[in-house]
Amino acid sequence: MAKSDITGKRKLKAQNVSHSNIKTKRWQHANIQSRRVWVPELERFVTLNLTTRDIRTIDKIGVTAYAKRHGVAIA
């Protein structure tokens, strides 16, 4: 199952709604990308499955601060 390693974001249930208002079930998939992220505290790269929003936020505040915000330990 595709899931973000830090936030836990995964696919969601949704509905297609036709012009006649008929509803059918479908999945909304999160945009999960596999990325190698440099962790300065460990002085090495860590491979993580991240959403694109996770990647943008990590670029802004750093991977350790982002993981700490979500209560996840980077190993």
First-residue to last-residue Cα separation? 21 Å
Structural class: alpha+beta
Q: How many beta-strand runs?
A: 4
Reading the helices and strands in chain order gives EEEEHH
Gross geometry: elongated
Please bin the fraction of helical residues. 10-25%
CATH fold annotation of the domain at 33-75? Ribosomal Protein L24e, Chain: T
Round the mean pLDDT to the nearest integer and report it.
Answer: 95
Radius of gyration: 16 Å
Low-pLDDT runs of 5+ residues are: none
Description:
- It contains two helices and four strands, in the order E-E-E-E-H-H.
- The model has no long low-confidence stretch (mean pLDDT 95).
- The longest helix is centred in the C-terminal third of the chain and has 10 residues, at 52-61.
- With 75 residues, the protein is of the alpha+beta class.
- 23% of the residues lie in helices and 37% in strands.
- The strands form two sheets. The protein has a two-stranded antiparallel ribbon. Strands 3-4 form a two-stranded antiparallel sheet.
- It has a domain at 33-75: Ribosomal Protein L24e, Chain: T (Roll).
- A hairpin with a 4-residue loop joins strand 3 (32-39) and strand 4 (44-51).
Describe the structure concisely.
The protein has helices spanning 52-61, 63-69; strands spanning 12-17, 23-28, 32-39, 44-51. It has 75 residues and is α+β, with helices and mostly antiparallel strands.
